Amino acid sequence: MKLKALLAFTLFSSTLSAQNIFPVKLSNCKADQFCLDCGDTKATYDQKKFSDIIENLNKSLNLQGIEGTVKFQVLVSKDGNACVLSHTDKSNNPISLKIIDELNQLDNWYPAVTNSKKEEKTSITLAFTIANNKLSGDIERVDIDDFKQSFDKPESPEIYNKNYTYKNENLKNYKMTVWNSKNSTLPNNMIDHISIANNGLIWMTVDEGLVTFNGKEFNNPAKGITPKDKYFQYYALATDNNNTTWIYAKDNIYSCNNAKWKKYDSTIIGISGANEIVNCSRSGEVFFSSSNGLVILKDNKWSKIDKRTLKQLPSNNISYANRDSKNRLWIGTYSGTVMIDNNGAITNFEKTSTILKGKTITSMDEDENGNLYFTLYEFNPKDEESVNNDDGIAIRYADGSLKQFTTSNSGMPFNGTTCILYDKNEKVVWISTDRAGLVRYDLKDGWENYHNENSDIPTSYISTMTFNDKGTLFLATRQGLVIVERKNK
Question: Which domains are delineated in the chain?
Fold first, then answer.
Protein backbone atom coordinates (compact mmCIF):
# COMPACT_ATOMS: atom_id res chain seq x y z
CA MET A 1 0.00 0.00 0.00
CA LYS A 2 1.23 3.47 -0.87
CA LEU A 3 0.06 6.90 0.14
CA LYS A 4 -0.35 9.02 -2.96
CA ALA A 5 0.16 12.76 -3.09
CA LEU A 6 -2.73 13.75 -5.32
CA LEU A 7 -2.24 17.44 -5.84
CA ALA A 8 -5.05 19.19 -7.68
CA PHE A 9 -5.24 22.89 -6.94
CA THR A 10 -8.71 24.31 -7.41
CA LEU A 11 -7.82 27.97 -7.21
CA PHE A 12 -5.15 30.49 -6.52
CA SER A 13 -4.94 33.92 -5.05
CA SER A 14 -2.54 35.48 -2.60
CA THR A 15 -5.66 35.98 -0.53
CA LEU A 16 -8.33 33.31 -0.72
CA SER A 17 -11.99 33.32 0.22
CA ALA A 18 -13.18 30.28 2.15
CA GLN A 19 -11.58 27.82 -0.26
CA ASN A 20 -9.37 24.77 -0.09
CA ILE A 21 -6.23 24.46 -2.21
CA PHE A 22 -6.07 20.64 -2.01
CA PRO A 23 -8.70 18.27 -3.40
CA VAL A 24 -9.92 16.74 -0.11
CA LYS A 25 -11.64 19.47 1.89
CA LEU A 26 -12.61 19.33 5.57
CA SER A 27 -15.72 21.20 6.64
CA ASN A 28 -14.89 21.37 10.35
CA CYS A 29 -12.31 24.07 9.64
CA LYS A 30 -14.17 27.33 9.08
CA ALA A 31 -12.62 30.25 7.20
CA ASP A 32 -14.01 33.29 5.45
CA GLN A 33 -10.75 34.68 4.13
CA PHE A 34 -7.10 33.98 4.63
CA CYS A 35 -3.78 34.80 3.04
CA LEU A 36 -1.55 32.20 1.43
CA ASP A 37 1.70 31.78 3.38
CA CYS A 38 1.95 35.54 3.70
CA GLY A 39 3.70 37.83 6.16
CA ASP A 40 7.02 39.47 6.84
CA THR A 41 7.27 36.77 9.51
CA LYS A 42 5.77 33.48 8.31
CA ALA A 43 3.31 31.39 10.30
CA THR A 44 4.85 28.34 11.95
CA TYR A 45 4.52 25.88 14.85
CA ASP A 46 6.18 25.31 18.19
CA GLN A 47 9.16 23.23 17.10
CA LYS A 48 9.38 21.11 20.25
CA LYS A 49 5.69 20.21 20.27
CA PHE A 50 5.76 19.42 16.56
CA SER A 51 8.78 17.16 17.11
CA ASP A 52 6.81 15.41 19.85
CA ILE A 53 3.99 14.76 17.38
CA ILE A 54 6.39 13.22 14.87
CA GLU A 55 7.92 11.04 17.59
CA ASN A 56 4.51 9.87 18.85
CA LEU A 57 3.29 9.09 15.33
CA ASN A 58 6.37 7.01 14.60
CA LYS A 59 5.85 5.06 17.82
CA SER A 60 2.12 4.47 17.39
CA LEU A 61 1.82 3.81 13.65
CA ASN A 62 2.79 0.70 11.73
CA LEU A 63 4.72 2.14 8.79
CA GLN A 64 6.20 -1.09 7.49
CA GLY A 65 6.21 -1.16 3.69
CA ILE A 66 4.51 2.21 3.36
CA GLU A 67 5.98 5.10 1.41
CA GLY A 68 4.68 8.35 -0.03
CA THR A 69 3.92 11.99 0.73
CA VAL A 70 0.73 13.72 1.79
CA LYS A 71 0.30 17.49 1.98
CA PHE A 72 -2.01 19.29 4.40
CA GLN A 73 -3.36 22.83 4.18
CA VAL A 74 -3.37 24.26 7.69
CA LEU A 75 -5.00 27.55 8.70
CA VAL A 76 -3.19 29.40 11.48
CA SER A 77 -5.18 32.12 13.24
CA LYS A 78 -3.82 35.22 14.91
CA ASP A 79 -4.57 33.77 18.37
CA GLY A 80 -2.25 30.80 17.80
CA ASN A 81 -4.84 28.14 16.98
CA ALA A 82 -4.85 26.07 13.81
CA CYS A 83 -6.90 23.52 11.90
CA VAL A 84 -6.52 21.40 8.77
CA LEU A 85 -8.63 22.76 5.90
CA SER A 86 -7.69 20.33 3.09
CA HIS A 87 -5.23 17.64 2.08
CA THR A 88 -4.08 15.57 -0.89
CA ASP A 89 -4.89 11.99 0.20
CA LYS A 90 -8.10 11.08 -1.63
CA SER A 91 -7.94 7.57 -0.18
CA ASN A 92 -8.31 9.00 3.35
CA ASN A 93 -5.78 6.52 4.67
CA PRO A 94 -5.93 6.09 8.48
CA ILE A 95 -2.40 7.48 8.71
CA SER A 96 -3.54 10.75 7.11
CA LEU A 97 -6.54 10.91 9.45
CA LYS A 98 -4.27 10.39 12.45
CA ILE A 99 -1.99 13.22 11.28
CA ILE A 100 -5.04 15.50 10.92
CA ASP A 101 -6.11 14.73 14.50
CA GLU A 102 -2.63 15.50 15.82
CA LEU A 103 -2.36 18.78 13.88
CA ASN A 104 -5.80 19.93 15.04
CA GLN A 105 -4.82 19.27 18.66
CA LEU A 106 -1.45 20.97 18.43
CA ASP A 107 -1.43 24.29 20.27
CA ASN A 108 1.04 27.19 20.39
CA TRP A 109 1.15 27.94 16.70
CA TYR A 110 2.78 31.24 15.77
CA PRO A 111 0.74 33.46 13.40
CA ALA A 112 2.10 35.33 10.42
CA VAL A 113 2.98 38.98 11.00
CA THR A 114 2.90 41.78 8.42
CA ASN A 115 4.01 45.32 9.30
CA SER A 116 4.03 44.35 13.01
CA LYS A 117 0.37 43.23 12.77
CA LYS A 118 -0.76 39.63 13.14
CA GLU A 119 -2.53 38.21 10.10
CA GLU A 120 -6.12 37.16 10.89
CA LYS A 121 -5.73 33.74 9.21
CA THR A 122 -2.88 32.29 7.20
CA SER A 123 -2.79 29.16 5.06
CA ILE A 124 0.43 27.13 5.19
CA THR A 125 1.29 23.75 3.73
CA LEU A 126 2.73 20.89 5.77
CA ALA A 127 4.21 17.92 3.91
CA PHE A 128 4.50 14.54 5.64
CA THR A 129 6.66 11.84 4.04
CA ILE A 130 7.03 8.15 4.88
CA ALA A 131 10.31 6.57 3.78
CA ASN A 132 12.38 3.73 5.23
CA ASN A 133 9.57 2.93 7.71
CA LYS A 134 9.80 6.40 9.23
CA LEU A 135 7.54 9.46 9.14
CA SER A 136 8.91 12.99 8.83
CA GLY A 137 7.20 16.32 8.34
CA ASP A 138 7.87 19.99 7.82
CA ILE A 139 6.39 23.21 6.44
CA GLU A 140 6.60 23.55 2.68
CA ARG A 141 6.80 27.23 1.91
CA VAL A 142 4.94 28.58 -1.10
CA ASP A 143 6.87 30.30 -3.88
CA ILE A 144 4.11 32.61 -5.10
CA ASP A 145 5.56 33.12 -8.59
CA ASP A 146 6.10 29.40 -9.14
CA PHE A 147 2.67 28.69 -7.69
CA LYS A 148 0.99 31.09 -10.09
CA GLN A 149 2.87 29.68 -13.06
CA SER A 150 2.01 26.09 -12.18
CA PHE A 151 -1.61 26.99 -11.61
CA ASP A 152 -2.16 28.93 -14.82
CA LYS A 153 -3.38 25.93 -16.78
CA PRO A 154 -6.81 24.31 -16.91
CA GLU A 155 -7.64 21.29 -14.81
CA SER A 156 -9.62 18.44 -16.33
CA PRO A 157 -13.33 18.60 -15.46
CA GLU A 158 -14.50 16.38 -12.63
CA ILE A 159 -17.80 14.85 -13.71
CA TYR A 160 -19.35 13.01 -10.75
CA ASN A 161 -22.59 12.17 -12.53
CA LYS A 162 -21.99 8.82 -14.23
CA ASN A 163 -25.67 8.16 -15.02
CA TYR A 164 -26.45 11.06 -17.35
CA THR A 165 -25.41 11.25 -21.00
CA TYR A 166 -24.64 14.79 -22.12
CA LYS A 167 -25.59 15.22 -25.76
CA ASN A 168 -24.90 18.99 -25.72
CA GLU A 169 -27.15 19.52 -28.74
CA ASN A 170 -27.30 23.30 -28.20
CA LEU A 171 -23.54 23.84 -27.95
CA LYS A 172 -23.32 24.53 -31.70
CA ASN A 173 -25.65 27.52 -31.23
CA TYR A 174 -23.15 29.49 -29.13
CA LYS A 175 -20.11 31.53 -29.96
CA MET A 176 -17.56 31.56 -27.15
CA THR A 177 -14.90 34.27 -27.03
CA VAL A 178 -12.00 34.09 -24.59
CA TRP A 179 -9.98 37.07 -23.41
CA ASN A 180 -6.85 36.17 -21.46
CA SER A 181 -3.36 37.41 -20.61
CA LYS A 182 -1.96 36.00 -23.86
CA ASN A 183 -4.32 37.69 -26.34
CA SER A 184 -5.05 40.94 -24.48
CA THR A 185 -3.86 43.37 -21.81
CA LEU A 186 -5.59 41.38 -19.04
CA PRO A 187 -2.88 41.31 -16.32
CA ASN A 188 -3.60 37.70 -15.31
CA ASN A 189 -6.26 35.06 -15.91
CA MET A 190 -7.58 34.54 -12.39
CA ILE A 191 -10.90 36.41 -12.41
CA ASP A 192 -13.01 36.08 -9.26
CA HIS A 193 -15.81 38.65 -9.57
CA ILE A 194 -17.52 40.42 -12.44
CA SER A 195 -20.04 43.26 -12.74
CA ILE A 196 -21.40 45.21 -15.72
CA ALA A 197 -22.26 48.89 -15.41
CA ASN A 198 -25.19 50.60 -17.14
CA ASN A 199 -22.86 51.99 -19.80
CA GLY A 200 -21.64 48.48 -20.66
CA LEU A 201 -18.29 48.83 -18.91
CA ILE A 202 -17.26 45.50 -17.37
CA TRP A 203 -15.59 45.46 -13.95
CA MET A 204 -13.57 42.46 -12.79
CA THR A 205 -11.39 41.50 -9.86
CA VAL A 206 -8.27 39.60 -10.84
CA ASP A 207 -5.52 38.22 -8.65
CA GLU A 208 -4.19 41.23 -6.72
CA GLY A 209 -5.93 43.64 -9.04
CA LEU A 210 -9.01 45.36 -10.43
CA VAL A 211 -9.68 45.91 -14.13
CA THR A 212 -12.34 47.29 -16.44
CA PHE A 213 -13.03 46.07 -19.96
CA ASN A 214 -14.66 48.21 -22.66
CA GLY A 215 -14.90 45.41 -25.21
CA LYS A 216 -11.48 46.08 -26.68
CA GLU A 217 -8.96 46.59 -23.91
CA PHE A 218 -8.48 46.15 -20.16
CA ASN A 219 -7.64 49.10 -17.94
CA ASN A 220 -6.80 49.68 -14.29
CA PRO A 221 -9.45 51.95 -12.73
CA ALA A 222 -8.02 51.86 -9.20
CA LYS A 223 -4.87 53.92 -9.52
CA GLY A 224 -6.34 56.50 -7.21
CA ILE A 225 -6.77 54.13 -4.25
CA THR A 226 -4.04 51.54 -4.66
CA PRO A 227 -0.98 52.32 -2.50
CA LYS A 228 2.14 52.39 -4.63
CA ASP A 229 4.23 49.21 -4.34
CA LYS A 230 1.87 47.84 -1.69
CA TYR A 231 -0.10 44.61 -1.82
CA PHE A 232 -3.79 45.37 -2.41
CA GLN A 233 -6.43 42.66 -2.79
CA TYR A 234 -10.05 42.94 -3.98
CA TYR A 235 -12.60 40.53 -2.53
CA ALA A 236 -16.14 41.50 -3.63
CA LEU A 237 -17.75 43.57 -6.38
CA ALA A 238 -21.13 44.87 -7.62
CA THR A 239 -22.50 47.81 -9.62
CA ASP A 240 -25.75 49.45 -8.51
CA ASN A 241 -28.61 51.11 -10.40
CA ASN A 242 -26.85 54.48 -10.24
CA ASN A 243 -23.77 53.13 -12.02
CA THR A 244 -21.77 53.19 -8.80
CA THR A 245 -19.43 50.24 -8.42
CA TRP A 246 -18.99 48.87 -4.90
CA ILE A 247 -15.86 47.03 -3.86
CA TYR A 248 -14.48 45.40 -0.75
CA ALA A 249 -10.73 45.86 -0.81
CA LYS A 250 -8.05 45.61 1.84
CA ASP A 251 -10.17 46.03 5.01
CA ASN A 252 -12.43 48.74 3.59
CA ILE A 253 -15.57 49.25 1.53
CA TYR A 254 -15.05 51.56 -1.48
CA SER A 255 -17.28 52.98 -4.19
CA CYS A 256 -16.44 54.41 -7.59
CA ASN A 257 -18.62 56.60 -9.79
CA ASN A 258 -17.30 58.54 -12.78
CA ALA A 259 -13.74 57.73 -11.73
CA LYS A 260 -14.32 59.27 -8.28
CA TRP A 261 -13.41 56.94 -5.42
CA LYS A 262 -14.77 57.04 -1.88
CA LYS A 263 -13.78 55.02 1.20
CA TYR A 264 -16.43 54.33 3.85
CA ASP A 265 -16.00 54.51 7.60
CA SER A 266 -16.71 51.07 9.07
CA THR A 267 -18.14 52.66 12.24
CA ILE A 268 -20.83 54.31 10.10
CA ILE A 269 -21.79 51.46 7.78
CA GLY A 270 -21.31 48.73 10.39
CA ILE A 271 -18.74 46.52 8.62
CA SER A 272 -15.20 46.79 7.29
CA GLY A 273 -15.44 43.93 4.79
CA ALA A 274 -17.84 41.76 2.80
CA ASN A 275 -18.18 38.13 1.77
CA GLU A 276 -20.41 39.17 -1.13
CA ILE A 277 -21.90 42.38 -2.57
CA VAL A 278 -25.18 42.09 -4.47
CA ASN A 279 -27.14 44.77 -6.32
CA CYS A 280 -30.90 44.19 -6.30
CA SER A 281 -32.03 46.19 -9.33
CA ARG A 282 -35.75 45.71 -8.63
CA SER A 283 -35.59 47.24 -5.14
CA GLY A 284 -32.69 49.66 -5.54
CA GLU A 285 -30.86 48.03 -2.63
CA VAL A 286 -27.24 46.96 -2.36
CA PHE A 287 -26.62 44.03 -0.01
CA PHE A 288 -23.29 43.62 1.76
CA SER A 289 -23.00 40.11 3.24
CA SER A 290 -20.32 39.93 5.90
CA SER A 291 -19.12 37.84 8.81
CA ASN A 292 -20.67 40.44 11.11
CA GLY A 293 -24.16 40.59 9.64
CA LEU A 294 -25.99 41.93 6.60
CA VAL A 295 -25.68 45.61 5.72
CA ILE A 296 -28.21 47.17 3.31
CA LEU A 297 -27.77 50.42 1.40
CA LYS A 298 -30.88 52.09 0.01
CA ASP A 299 -31.50 55.75 -0.85
CA ASN A 300 -28.08 56.63 0.63
CA LYS A 301 -29.09 55.15 4.00
CA TRP A 302 -27.34 52.25 5.70
CA SER A 303 -29.08 49.63 7.83
CA LYS A 304 -27.88 46.39 9.41
CA ILE A 305 -29.41 43.02 10.17
CA ASP A 306 -27.67 40.75 12.67
CA LYS A 307 -28.60 38.54 15.59
CA ARG A 308 -29.17 41.56 17.80
CA THR A 309 -31.82 42.97 15.49
CA LEU A 310 -33.13 39.62 14.21
CA LYS A 311 -33.03 36.85 16.81
CA GLN A 312 -34.17 34.23 14.28
CA LEU A 313 -31.04 34.78 12.20
CA PRO A 314 -29.03 31.54 12.48
CA SER A 315 -25.68 33.31 12.34
CA ASN A 316 -24.07 36.69 11.75
CA ASN A 317 -21.83 35.10 9.12
CA ILE A 318 -23.78 35.90 5.95
CA SER A 319 -23.01 34.17 2.65
CA TYR A 320 -25.56 35.86 0.40
CA ALA A 321 -28.69 38.02 0.40
CA ASN A 322 -31.19 39.22 -2.20
CA ARG A 323 -34.83 40.25 -2.53
CA ASP A 324 -37.39 38.70 -4.88
CA SER A 325 -40.24 40.29 -6.84
CA LYS A 326 -42.67 39.76 -3.94
CA ASN A 327 -40.44 41.82 -1.66
CA ARG A 328 -39.27 38.76 0.28
CA LEU A 329 -35.74 39.06 1.62
CA TRP A 330 -33.68 35.86 1.37
CA ILE A 331 -30.61 35.61 3.59
CA GLY A 332 -28.12 32.74 3.50
CA THR A 333 -25.90 32.30 6.54
CA TYR A 334 -23.25 29.66 7.17
CA SER A 335 -25.62 28.18 9.76
CA GLY A 336 -28.81 28.21 7.70
CA THR A 337 -31.13 30.20 5.43
CA VAL A 338 -33.96 32.55 6.41
CA MET A 339 -36.68 34.38 4.46
CA ILE A 340 -38.46 37.53 5.61
CA ASP A 341 -41.73 38.12 3.76
CA ASN A 342 -43.41 41.41 2.87
CA ASN A 343 -45.29 41.42 6.20
CA GLY A 344 -42.17 40.81 8.27
CA ALA A 345 -42.91 37.12 8.94
CA ILE A 346 -39.70 35.11 9.22
CA THR A 347 -39.08 31.58 8.02
CA ASN A 348 -35.98 29.90 9.42
CA PHE A 349 -35.43 26.91 7.16
CA GLU A 350 -33.34 25.17 9.83
CA LYS A 351 -36.63 24.64 11.65
CA THR A 352 -38.32 23.08 8.62
CA SER A 353 -38.06 19.70 6.92
CA THR A 354 -37.53 21.22 3.47
CA ILE A 355 -34.49 20.68 1.27
CA LEU A 356 -33.13 24.05 2.44
CA LYS A 357 -32.48 22.64 5.92
CA GLY A 358 -28.74 22.30 6.38
CA LYS A 359 -28.07 24.57 3.38
CA THR A 360 -27.14 28.16 2.78
CA ILE A 361 -28.06 29.90 -0.46
CA THR A 362 -25.04 31.33 -2.31
CA SER A 363 -26.72 32.92 -5.36
CA MET A 364 -30.26 33.51 -6.58
CA ASP A 365 -32.32 34.48 -9.64
CA GLU A 366 -35.99 34.64 -10.61
CA ASP A 367 -38.01 34.08 -13.78
CA GLU A 368 -41.05 35.94 -15.11
CA ASN A 369 -43.41 33.46 -13.41
CA GLY A 370 -42.03 33.98 -9.91
CA ASN A 371 -40.00 30.76 -9.76
CA LEU A 372 -36.81 31.24 -7.72
CA TYR A 373 -33.48 29.58 -8.48
CA PHE A 374 -30.77 29.06 -5.85
CA THR A 375 -27.28 27.62 -5.67
CA LEU A 376 -26.74 25.76 -2.41
CA TYR A 377 -23.92 25.02 0.00
CA GLU A 378 -24.21 22.23 2.57
CA PHE A 379 -22.49 23.73 5.61
CA ASN A 380 -22.43 20.60 7.79
CA PRO A 381 -22.04 17.71 5.31
CA LYS A 382 -22.75 14.19 6.50
CA ASP A 383 -19.50 13.02 4.94
CA GLU A 384 -16.86 15.59 5.83
CA GLU A 385 -14.33 13.99 3.51
CA SER A 386 -16.58 14.09 0.43
CA VAL A 387 -15.92 16.51 -2.40
CA ASN A 388 -19.30 16.10 -4.09
CA ASN A 389 -21.47 17.15 -1.14
CA ASP A 390 -25.24 17.58 -1.02
CA ASP A 391 -25.11 21.05 -2.59
CA GLY A 392 -26.41 21.49 -6.14
CA ILE A 393 -29.25 23.87 -6.95
CA ALA A 394 -32.84 24.34 -5.79
CA ILE A 395 -35.95 25.70 -7.44
CA ARG A 396 -38.70 27.25 -5.35
CA TYR A 397 -41.72 27.17 -7.60
CA ALA A 398 -44.38 29.87 -7.57
CA ASP A 399 -46.72 27.56 -5.60
CA GLY A 400 -44.18 27.43 -2.74
CA SER A 401 -42.86 23.91 -3.39
CA LEU A 402 -39.13 23.29 -3.36
CA LYS A 403 -37.02 20.82 -5.33
CA GLN A 404 -33.30 20.18 -5.14
CA PHE A 405 -31.25 19.03 -8.15
CA THR A 406 -28.01 17.12 -7.63
CA THR A 407 -25.91 14.50 -9.39
CA SER A 408 -28.15 11.81 -7.90
CA ASN A 409 -31.49 12.96 -9.34
CA SER A 410 -30.71 15.15 -12.37
CA GLY A 411 -28.15 15.99 -15.02
CA MET A 412 -26.00 18.05 -12.68
CA PRO A 413 -22.41 16.98 -13.41
CA PHE A 414 -21.09 18.12 -10.02
CA ASN A 415 -22.79 19.51 -6.92
CA GLY A 416 -20.34 22.33 -6.19
CA THR A 417 -22.04 25.39 -7.71
CA THR A 418 -20.95 29.02 -7.77
CA CYS A 419 -23.75 30.94 -9.52
CA ILE A 420 -27.16 30.48 -11.14
CA LEU A 421 -28.84 32.75 -13.73
CA TYR A 422 -32.19 32.58 -15.48
CA ASP A 423 -31.98 33.37 -19.20
CA LYS A 424 -35.22 35.19 -20.06
CA ASN A 425 -34.47 35.06 -23.79
CA GLU A 426 -34.01 31.30 -24.03
CA LYS A 427 -36.08 30.33 -20.96
CA VAL A 428 -33.22 28.22 -19.60
CA VAL A 429 -31.07 28.25 -16.48
CA TRP A 430 -27.29 28.61 -16.54
CA ILE A 431 -25.29 27.15 -13.64
CA SER A 432 -21.57 27.62 -13.06
CA THR A 433 -19.49 25.10 -11.12
CA ASP A 434 -16.01 25.07 -9.64
CA ARG A 435 -14.96 21.69 -11.06
CA ALA A 436 -17.23 20.77 -13.98
CA GLY A 437 -17.59 23.95 -16.04
CA LEU A 438 -20.89 25.45 -17.25
CA VAL A 439 -24.31 23.79 -17.09
CA ARG A 440 -27.31 24.60 -19.30
CA TYR A 441 -30.69 23.34 -18.00
CA ASP A 442 -33.80 23.78 -20.15
CA LEU A 443 -36.13 23.37 -17.11
CA LYS A 444 -37.61 20.19 -18.56
CA ASP A 445 -35.27 17.24 -18.90
CA GLY A 446 -32.39 18.64 -20.93
CA TRP A 447 -29.05 19.10 -19.20
CA GLU A 448 -25.92 20.14 -21.07
CA ASN A 449 -22.40 20.52 -19.71
CA TYR A 450 -19.71 22.67 -21.36
CA HIS A 451 -16.08 22.70 -20.24
CA ASN A 452 -12.50 22.81 -21.52
CA GLU A 453 -12.59 19.30 -22.96
CA ASN A 454 -15.71 19.66 -25.11
CA SER A 455 -16.08 23.38 -25.87
CA ASP A 456 -14.19 26.65 -26.28
CA ILE A 457 -14.56 27.38 -22.57
CA PRO A 458 -10.91 27.16 -21.42
CA THR A 459 -11.51 25.82 -17.90
CA SER A 460 -13.67 23.68 -15.66
CA TYR A 461 -13.54 26.32 -12.89
CA ILE A 462 -16.00 29.22 -13.21
CA SER A 463 -16.00 31.70 -10.34
CA THR A 464 -19.23 33.50 -11.21
CA MET A 465 -21.16 34.94 -14.17
CA THR A 466 -23.50 37.72 -15.27
CA PHE A 467 -25.60 38.95 -18.22
CA ASN A 468 -25.32 42.26 -20.02
CA ASP A 469 -28.43 44.14 -21.14
CA LYS A 470 -28.42 42.24 -24.46
CA GLY A 471 -28.56 38.85 -22.78
CA THR A 472 -24.95 37.94 -23.50
CA LEU A 473 -23.43 35.71 -20.82
CA PHE A 474 -20.08 36.67 -19.26
CA LEU A 475 -18.08 34.12 -17.29
CA ALA A 476 -15.43 34.99 -14.72
CA THR A 477 -13.04 32.05 -14.77
CA ARG A 478 -9.57 30.98 -13.69
CA GLN A 479 -8.48 31.10 -17.33
CA GLY A 480 -9.71 34.56 -18.26
CA LEU A 481 -12.96 36.24 -19.33
CA VAL A 482 -15.33 34.12 -21.42
CA ILE A 483 -18.19 35.63 -23.44
CA VAL A 484 -21.00 33.28 -24.47
CA GLU A 485 -23.23 34.63 -27.25
CA ARG A 486 -26.08 32.89 -29.04
CA LYS A 487 -25.45 32.81 -32.78
CA ASN A 488 -27.81 34.45 -35.30
CA LYS A 489 -29.72 36.53 -32.81
Answer: 15-151 (no CATH), 171-486 (2.130.10.10)
